[in-house]
Amino acid sequence: MKGGNVSEKEIEEKQKWIAGRALTSKIISEEVEPTCDVLGKNNKLVFATGLFAGSTVSSANRLSIGGKSPLTGTIKESNAGGTLAFKMGKLGIRCIVIEDVPPEGENFLLYISKEKTELIPANKYWGIDTQELACELRKKYGEKVGMALIGSAGGNLSLSSGIAVTDLQGRPSRFAGRGGLGALMGSKGLKAVIIDDQGAESLSIKDVESFTEIQKEITKEITSNEQVAKTFTKLGTSGLVKLINSMGALPTQNFSKGSFDEAESISGEAMYERILERGGAGNPSHSCMPGCIIRCSNVYPDKDGEEIVAPLEYETIGLMGSNCGISDLDTIAHLNKKCNDLGLDTIDTGGAIAIAMEAGVIDFGDGKGALELLDEVYEQTWLGKIIASGGRRTGEVLGVRRIPTCKSQIIPAYDPRAIKGLGVTYATSTMGADHTAGQTLRAPVEHTRAEGQVEASRNAQITNAIYDITGTCFFLGAGINKKLEWLSDLATAVFGEECKLEDLYAIAGETLQREKDFNYNAGFSDANNQLPEFFYFERNPDTDTVFDVNQEEMKMIF
After folding, report:
1. Residue ending a domain, choose from 383, 408, 433
2. Exposure check for the chain: N or C terminus, fewer CB within 10 A?
């Protein structure tokens, strides 16, 4: 970014299976000083595809974005669906690395097509938020380009800002939200990455026949999976609301309890019925990336059938709904829309709003007040800047003791006293509190008991790393009944050289160790691998439990 120079290099043969999170973490750990200024010239921002990007294998075009996190100070990988990884794969691009910072006052777009790669001055776009920006760039560069872009929150270096990726309809709605990577992109003076794949081929595959046969098997398995049809395709992630509430794990009023009296009104079932009733632009089942047949996304409309937001998902409902005491889906959808437009992570922002509620800035359940807090972010008032800095900073400034974060990142929508394996993941993950780093919801354990939770989290963290490395969605695992060997078989077909499942496990293990070493060298230790103290002593009244997993066992997780 300093000199506007663009260079290319080929992937080394020995690194052909290093992709997605494995590649972002490898580059960051090898090329970024762990103690660097996260917003300075020595940090790097990496966009990386998985092994099958550019193909139409279902759920296999997720994008990994990595760097040293402005929010947590740890190494970070955040991933998203959308079209960017698919288009990068078609152009034969495994990753894009953004280095250094531009001269003061200069900002850019990065445009990549089959013919050229160039940085384009973007000062006129800098203050524009994501919805307007996406429309402007599609008008200029074509309706079919894929984009990753930041809103004003990223441009203002807000610590809870994310990076929006466009979906199949061009909406900037698929978020790499966690870790403040929007602020990192903003610090690089980069407003958007635009990928134009016009004239490009699909993914280059050595053994097309085998690849096609495995893809057919995956498709068959997904389409015949009753859980996918009845839950993921019909209700999407919002289908979790009633289940998690029944488990006493739905965060309510800043994690003070685990069930919400009005959970039914914000459930996936309620949302499904409302979308069908309102019609118009509404759609209860929508694909966020090319080739996906699970279709867990949605388009949520207003009472006139006009689109409010796409998608409205479980984590947003949990953190901006029950956690804030808000029981109106329309209000939650409008909060979601404002966050998407600003480019804010709905998890950390929902956590920040709930903390502001606990501080008495507004009352729990005050949806109008919550929307006005986001207006403060638009207006860049001091209170708006505090909210956009994330939950931990909001709590510290407002004098709130109960701040539900790990490594400065707000805990997702599962109370760790009720699903203790996720508590282990939150505490020990190299990424800060992140359910996608090691989801244990379906692990064969009794979730409110301490026994077996470390092993469940360890297994989940390794398996989830494999999904991140291959660029596949976590839901694919449920869709194919966790037949992970299909992923290694696909890799064998792509490269024409045997890839065993053990090889993917080895890469996942190396990635986790690499991330742990980076964090250690950045100043993190076992003392940072724990939950906030109140989870150990303040009982969840809906399960009558505290988090009591043995700390010494947790230290030995890997």
Report:
1. 408
2. C
Q: What is the pTM of this model?
A: 0.97
Which of helix, strand or coil describes residue 415? coil
Angle at 437 between CA 556 and CA 234, to 5 degrees: 140
474 closest CA partner among 551, 534, 412, 416? 412
The identity of residue 195, as a single letter, is I
Residue 76 maps to which CATH number? Answer: 3.60.9.10
**Are 168 and 263 within one domain?**
no
Is the pLDDT reported for residue 351 higher than 90?
Answer: yes
Indicate the DSSP class of residue 298.
E
Whole-number pLDDT of residue 291: 87
Would you mind telling me the total number of residues written for the chain in this entry?
558
The token duo for 49 is 């595809």
Q: Which residues are within 8 A (CB) of 355 and not within 5 positions of it... i.e. 6 or more apart?
A: 254, 391, 394, 395, 398, 400, 403
Radius of gyration of the chain (CA): 22
Q: Does residue 267 fall inside a structural domain? A: yes
Name the residue among 515, 490, 485 with its Cα closest to residue 502.
485
Domain that holds residue 149: 13-195
- Cis peptide leading into residue 251 (ω within 30°): no
Task: Provide CB contacts within 8 A for 303, sequence distance 6+.
Answer: 278, 330
Tokens of 439: 């989801």
Residue 390: both structure tokens together: 């994330």
- Among 351, 419, 357, 396, CA closest to 177: 351
Orientation angle between helical segments 20-31 and 501-521, nearest 10 degrees: 30
Whole-angstrom Cα distance, residue 321 to residue 263? 9
Both tokens of 314, joined, read 């479980």
Is residue 17 domain-resident?
Answer: yes
The answer to whether the CB of 68 falls within 8 A of the CB of 180 is no
C-alpha atoms less than 13 angstroms from C-alpha of 500 in its C-beta half-sphere: 3
Interaxial angle between packed helices 501-521 and 453-470, expressed in degrees from 0 to 180 and rounded to the nearest 10? 100
CA distance 438 to 544: 24
- pLDDT tens digits, residue range 197-219? 999 988 999 999 999 999 999 99
> What's the CA gap between 440 and 456, in Å, rounded?
6
Residue with tokens 């288009």: 87
Residues 65 and 179 in one domain: yes
Q: What sign for the dihedral angle of Cα 441, 71, 258, 447?
A: positive
pLDDT digits (tens, 9 = 90+) for 393-408: 999 999 999 999 999 9
Domain count, the chain: 2
The distance between the two most distant Cα atoms of the chain, rounded to a whole number of Å, is 63
The helix, strand and coil proportions of the chain, stated in percent and rounded to the nearest 5, come to: 45, 15, 45
Give dist(CA 410, CA 351) in Å, integer: 6
What's the rounded Cα separation, in Å, for the pair 7 and 101?
16
476 — pLDDT class (breaks 50, 70, 90): confident
Give the angle 165-170-171 at the CA atoms, nearest 5°.
65
